[in-house]
Amino acid sequence: MRARIVRVFAVAGLCAAALPASAFEAPPRFDVTKIPGLRAAGVNYTVANPVTSDGFLRVYQLKTSYGDVVANGDAVLQMRLIELAAVAELDKVNNSDAFNRALAEAGLRPIKFAGELIVNPVKTIGNTLAGIGSVFGQIGAGMNNAGKTVDDPMAGLLGVNKQRREIAAKLGVDPYTDFQPLAVKLARLSEAAAAGGLVVNGALMAIPGVAGIVISNVSTGYDLTSISRDYTAAQLMDMTRQKLTAMGVTRELSDAFLANRNYTPLDAYAVGEALTAIQARERPGFVARAAAVARRDAAFFMRRHVEMLAQYERKTGNVVAFLALGEFPFVELKSGTIMGLWPVDALSWTESTGKALGAVNADLKRQGLAGKGELRISGTATAMARENMKAMGWKLVENARP
Question: Is the pLDDT of residue 50 over 60?
Fold first, then answer.
C-alpha cells in the first residue's frame, strides 16, 4: 500500500480509541475532467482517470514520455506540470535548426545518446561571473557548504552552473529540480551554453516559448525568479542559514535542515524567507520538524504550509507561536485559537486520518486547549470528515486562502 503523507508527520504507533470499521470511509476518487484548473493531458503527459486520494491529498498518476510519475497533492502536480512544460520547450530547443547551427558555429559537436543531447566542448569555457565581489561571494559560500550542495565545483568554475540558473529562470523552474528528465536536459543545455557562449545563448533566446512559462505555482511575497538566477546553491544555503540564525536556530539544526536533500536549495531558502515573515515564538521547533522529514512530498508539504502561513501573517499579523499537535504543524493566534493551515486537497475520514486527527485532538486536550482548534485546508472535506471534526470541537474551514 502506498505510504501516505500522514505517516511522515504522525508519531510512530499513533492511535486513537478503537472504532468500528463503519466509523470510517474509503477515500474518494475524482473524475480528472472535473478537477478545477487541471489540464488532464499535454504534449508529453496524460493524467490517469480516476484520480485517487489518501485521506489528505489527491494522488495523481501521470503517464509521461519519460516514464510514469506519481504526484502526491495538487501543489506537487502543478509543479510537475510546469516542469513537463519546461521539458517540452527544451526538447524543441534540442531539435531546432537554430540551436544546432549555433552549436556548430561555437565549435561544438552535438550527438544523440539515449535521446539526450550531449555536447563535446572543444573550446575553453570562460568564467562568466560578473564582478570580483560576486566571485569572492560564490567562493566563500562554496567553502562554507562544501559537500552539501548539488552544484559541481568544476562546473561552477566553467560557468555551467550559472547557465543552468539562467535557463531555469527563463523556463520558470527550480534549477535544482528533483525531476530527472528536466534535470538532465538543464545540465546538457547549460553545458552547451557555457561552452558556446553568446552564440548558443542567442539561439536559446530565439526559440519561441522558452521564456513563456510562469516561474512558480506558489504565490509568495518575494521574487524567487531573480533569487534562483542570481545566487548559487551554496549562496542560497548561506543566506538561509543567516535567516535561521537570526530567529534563534542553532548552527547544528540549521545544518541538519540544509543537509536534508528532500528540500532543494531553493525550497530551503523559501522556507527561511517565509519564517522570517512570521515574527512568532518557537520557530526553531518548526525547523526541527521540517529537518526531520524523510520524503520529497512531505518536504514540499512543509514548504507550502509555511508559505501559506507567511501570506496569512502578512495580511493579519495574528500568529504568535508555532507548536505541534500529534506531530503536525500548528500555530497559536492572538485570540488563543490553535490553527492548522494546510495544503490539503481532499480531507476524508479514513482510518489513518481518523487516528491522526484523533491524536491531534488528544494533544489539544492535554494542553488544556479543547474547543480552540481550527483547521483551515486549501481543498474540501467529505461530509463524514466535517461531522467528525465538529464532534471533536474543531472549526473546519474549506477552500481556505491565506
Answer: yes
